[in-house]
Amino acid sequence: MAKILRIYPQNPQENLIDEAVKVLQNGGVIIYPSDTIYTIGCDIYNHKAMERLAQIKGIKIDKHKFSIICNDLSHLSEFTKPIETSTFRFLKTHLPGAFTFILEANRNLPTSYKGHKTVGIRVPDHIVPQLIVEKLGHPIVSTSIHDDDEILEYSTDPELIAEKYDKLVDIVIDSGYGDNTASTIVDLTSGEPEIIRQGKGVL
Prior knowledge:
Elements: E1 3-6, H1 14-25, E2 30-32, E3 39-41, H2 47-57, E4 67-69, H3 76-79, H4 85-94, E5 99-104, E6 118-122, H5 127-136, E7 140-144, H6 158-164, E8 171-174, E9 184-187, E10 194-197
Parallel strand pairs: 1-8, 2-8, 4-6, 5-9
Antiparallel strand pairs: 2-3, 3-7, 4-7, 5-6, 9-10
């Protein structure tokens, strides 16, 4: 059964952040808030956890398009090819924020990203995932939680999310109601920003 941790951005308790990090270190899968929607994620370097995440999504591990969640831009060089100075300035202008930026991947991506030529990078403007990544020491991954409702595309109520995913994940972080608008996806692989999906972020 998933454990619910109530961690609010106004006063995120360090011991609860540590608890979430320990679960990730042990190969767990967690649901956590962002500046857009609630998402499911795990440690990017734990292949078994990544396989479990893919199974929850009902896809094969080699078909996933999980975004990488960073707490700042310092991890870029670990996962992406060198970028132009102008592109880096563009990223700094819009991050942290409600964007997923598609960049060219390098060969250092973890095993679970084998064959990926591009990768989505996120730096959410939300203290909870930022602290988790900072404490863990490296990025986590993110995939959306879709709702079964015909009107709402994404699940916003953490208690209902916890009920639905109770036997599938290890922790649900309750930070209050989430948004129902996902991040704006921007492709930067050509050097010029191309909006692939308009979401919450506005360029």
